[in-house]
Amino acid sequence: MQTEGRAPLSGDDPSDRSSDAEFSAAPTLPRKRLRLLLLVAFGVVLLDQVSKYVVVRAMADREPLKLLGGLLTITYTRNAGAAFSLGTGFTFLFTGVAVAVVVVILRTAPRLRSVGWALALGALLGGALGNLIDRFFRSPGPGRGHVVDWIQLPHFAVFNLADSAITCSAVGIVLLSLLGHELDGRRSARSADHGIEQERSPGE
What we know:
Largest sheet: 3 strands, antiparallel
Order of helices and strands: HHEEHHEHH
Number of strands: 3
Radius of gyration: 24 Å
Helix content: 55-70%
Structural class: mainly alpha
């Protein structure tokens, strides 16, 4: 029988149990973030490709369709360049860049512990894959295929859902970086120091 005031045995130390629990749960977190990234990417690719299929079938021989009083116009176009019809003479280059982006994201994904980064990189991966599918499977040929664009806003280039996902991802990545959120879910030292200074300033 353990006497009162005696230190607990090492096997009964609550801190040891909590550390063991954290260690055993730690490997599951990257897998959850990886699943979230892949789910977002799959959703973006699905929506992008389904919308392109519908537009090609419905708008190939039709005039642009104006909606919402002209705020949104459905315009079927084929784009040999990057997002928003930029660089139409460098189709092969943009295909290579997109492939490189996909490879980098997939190599980075196993280290993810941040929900924000998983969402941002998932949108970027989905957008890159959505347009890559067009590059490889649409005319005039693999690697040179023209991307289907169909969304037009007033005084703006025609784009698609994959382009939108890439743009939203870029905004998210910038915000996460500015706020000091890292891939592993931690806050950067600079961001943490700034937060401490803000907490101390009212009492000074």
